[in-house]
């Protein structure tokens, strides 16, 4: 009976219980649960509830940070098991969360899926300025730049970053893909991105299709 295990895992995540989440994820792996199910139905759904509680003012930043550490503890255990792709894709991707934005859980999941799909990924972390994206692009010559934003207030920074690539005259040498909860395909289109992905799995598929 795996249902209670999933619910329990979400509950541990929501309470920010780092050891508890690790133990439950390991138990689910040992029981033969699919790693993608543990991630999507356990951890990601748990984090969605954390977001709702944050919205209602039932959880505050320090608690949400504990929840994200708990999520990372679970993701670390799942990482070696998630979607190992047999086909090696040669291609380099530079990824980062835009300037002013500190959310990195989703971007790190995207990184994991891209690496599983065989890409060489340079992860610049969070709060990445347009200048840093450009300097790294010049130094690393990636095929793709992937930009993440989780706040409506930092969405315009994606456009600024893309505009900076265009001004630097290197936009046509690479593809720029974007994603993050508040984004839409229409927004991606409007700001001149080459692609939009709603989640980590689609980001890997999109990247492959662009190579
Ligand atoms: Co923040 N936060 N947060 N937060 N936080 C949200 C995003 C929010 C929706 C919560 C809420 O109010 N319900 C809200 C944004 C509202 C808005 O803009 N409309 C919000 C807010 C307001 C804030 C602060 C302003 C709060 C404050 O200080 N008052 C503040 C801002 C700090 C800053 O960035 N400057 C803040 C801070 C934080 C913490 C630091 C406490 C923490 C982040 C810790 C960390 O990342 N290390 C945090 C968290 C954890 C959240 C929630 C609860 C969870 C985000 C998350 O990790 N989701 C979030 C509410 C929510 O989303 N339910 C919330 C799980 C993750 C797997 O999903 O990130 O969507 P996601 O990634 C997905 C897709 O979006 C996509 O694939 C991923 C995997 O499937 N994707 C891409 C993401 N990037 C992609 C890039 C791609 C493609 C796909 O490239 C091609």
Structure report:
The structure is a single chain. The chain is an alpha/beta fold and 211 residues long. It is built from nine helices and five strands; from the N terminus they run ααααβαβαβαβαβα. The chain has helices spanning 3-14, 18-30, 35-56, 61-78, 105-116, 130-140, 155-167, 185-190, 200-210; strands at residues 92-97, 120-123, 144-148, 175-179, 195-196. A five-stranded parallel β-sheet has the order 2-1-3-4-5, sandwiched between helices. β4 (175-179), α8 (185-190) and β5 form a beta-alpha-beta unit. The model has no long low-confidence stretch (mean pLDDT 90). The structure holds CO-5-methoxybenzimidazolylcobamide. Residues 44, 47-48, 50-51, 54-55, 61, 64-65, 68, 100-107, 109-110, 146, 148, 150-153, 177-182, 197, 199-200, 203 line the site of CO-5-methoxybenzimidazolylcobamide (B1M).
Protein traits:
binds CO-5-methoxybenzimidazolylcobamide, alpha/beta, 211 residues, globular, five-stranded parallel sheet
Rough outline: globular
What structural class is derived from the secondary structure elements?
alpha/beta
Helical proportion? 55-70%
> What characterizes the major β-sheet?
5 strands, parallel
Element-by-element helix/strand order? HHHHEHEHEHEHEH
Oligomeric form: single chain
- The number of distinct helices, counting runs of at least 4 residues, comes to 9
Approximate strand percentage? 5-15%
As a whole number of angstroms, the C-alpha radius of gyration is 18 Å
Point out poorly predicted stretches: none
Q: What's the arrangement of strands in the largest beta sheet?
A: 2-1-3-4-5
Beginning-to-end CA distance, first to last residue: 42 Å
What average pLDDT do the residues reach?
A: 90
What's the count of strands?
5
Bound molecules: CO-5-methoxybenzimidazolylcobamide
């Amino acid at each position: 009976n795996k249902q209670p295990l999933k619910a329990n895992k979400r509950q541990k995540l929501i309470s920010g219980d780092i050891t508890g989440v690790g133990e439950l994820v390991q138990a689910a792996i040992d029981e033969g649960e699919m790693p993608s199910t543990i991630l999507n139905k356990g951890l990601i759904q748990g984090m969605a509830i954390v977001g709702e509680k944050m919205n209602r003012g039932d959880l505050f930043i320090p608690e949400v940070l504990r929840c994200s550490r708990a999520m990372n503890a679970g993701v670390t255990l799942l990482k070696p098991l998630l979607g190992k792709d047999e086909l090696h894709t040669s291609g380099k991707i530079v990824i980062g969360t835009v300037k002013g934005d500190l959310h990195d859980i989703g971007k790190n999941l995207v990184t994991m899926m891209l690496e599983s799909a065989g890409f060489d990924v340079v992860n610049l972390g969070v709060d990445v300025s347009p200048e840093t994206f450009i300097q790294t692009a010049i130094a690393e010559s990636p095929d793709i730049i992937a930009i993440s934003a989780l706040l409506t207030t930092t969405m315009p920074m994606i456009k600024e970053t893309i505009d900076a690539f265009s001004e630097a005259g290197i936009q046509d040498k690479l593809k720029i893909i974007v994603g993050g909860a508040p984004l839409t395909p229409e927004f991606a289109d409007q700001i001149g991105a080459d692609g939009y992905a709603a989640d980590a799995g689609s980001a890997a598929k999109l990247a492959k299709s662009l190579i």
